[in-house]
Amino acid sequence: MGKAIVKIKPKKYKVGDIVKVDFIAIHPMETGMRKDKKSGKIIPAKYIEDVEFFYNGKLFTKMDIWESTSTNPYLSVNLKITEPGEVKVTYKDNTGETGEKAKKIKPKAA
Amino acid sequence: MKRRTFLKTIAATAPLVAVSTPTLLSAKATPKSPNAMDLKTALKAITGGKAVTDSDKIKLVVPEIAENGAVVPVKIHVTHPMEANNYVKTIHVFATQNVNVRCADVHLTPANGKGYFATRVKLAKSQDVMALVELSDGTFIKTQKPVKVTIGGCG
Fold first, then answer.
1. Residue A13 pLDDT > 50
2. What is the predicted ipTM?
3. Identity of the residue in A31, A55, A69 whose CB atom sits nearest the CB atom of B111
4. Is B3 found in the same domain as B59?
5. I want to staple A7 with a disulfide (CB 3.0 to 4.6 A). Which of A22, A54, B14, B29 is the partner?
6. Which residue segments constitute the domains of chain A, with CATH numbers given?
7. pTM, two decimal places
């Protein structure tokens, strides 16, 4: 599976702040409706289906994604910062391929 | 002979039967997504027929005109608490006229802090983008906005 990126915005935050968690996966998100121009054959559907967001091992957001989401899907949610640790995003596509990416959570002193 | 006539009839009424007979169409007609689902069916599946009211609690941000239908930014802000017993439970994003209207079903928790979701979607043609929100008490609210697409986004 391709690369993935997790970004926390803003870069500086403290406990109690609500930050934005941006997740981008490098993935074709093929709908299964496109034909290969050379062969005329249908390019099989290949798209990310499940995405889970964890904060220190606790699931805080779960997404069902469909092929109408753009290629290299960008998915963003908020997270309330309560403690230092790590955000981890795991994802799976309809062919069974999986991937994950983590980002450290380091709140500044209040 | 019978099959040929049957297929011609099917082709003529394709929009009506597309969702229910994908296997019959797949051999001869334009490729259909195995996930093909129209808005009415998707709404019924999610709400179970419950009432859905339009609400200005949902701020849906989409461009009026999308130059590239393959990558249309969508931002949703729901003005609603995110507390243990009262929070935004799920945000559904629909491209109301795509073959599969479903883009994303986002299941939130109070830990999110805010009812917010942003993504980029493919719009096959000019259409409404809809945000359907389920609150923790089981009520459904929605809003929608039209997006004009100059170049369609499904290849």
1. yes
2. 0.95
3. A55
4. no
5. A22
6. 4-32+41-105 (2.60.40.10)
7. 0.86
